[in-house]
Predict the 3D structure of the following.
Amino acid sequence: MIRITNRALLMTVGSLFSLFLLGCNYERMYDQESVRTYKTAIPDMPEGTVPTKGGIQQLKKADPKALKNPLVSNSDSVAQGEETYKYFCIQCHGPQGDGKGTVGQSFAPLPSNLRDARVHEQTDGELFVKISLGFRRHPPLGDTVSEEDRWATIVYIRSLKPRG
């Protein structure tokens, strides 16, 4: 048998009354904005938020050989590419770009040697598509690395001396 004391009853009624006075009227939850989201107006997107040209979907449709690198190969773009390489590529392709990175050694097949003639024979567009969309075990970096940084990485790869 449950025994309710006057003190417990008084505390419960007092708590509910104080919640009502403080604006915590739970019976009116249906008026909350979170419940009626369809009445909330969607704000306008800031300028430049949604791409109107380019983007991953356009890249999937493009001919890789027709893509041209918009960056000029100079010391600034090589430095930008090297910095991007150090953040996103060095773990697998190694500090020398020879495919001997610490993480990459656990992959089969091993990461590409970026100094290899087969890499340098490809157009900038072909490398850009492979970096952006991924291939074999290479992860797609199109959503992770900015377009300019991906192009700059290609400029950096071109600055590496080809071997063999």
Notes: The chain has a mean pLDDT of 83. Residues 6-38 form one domain.
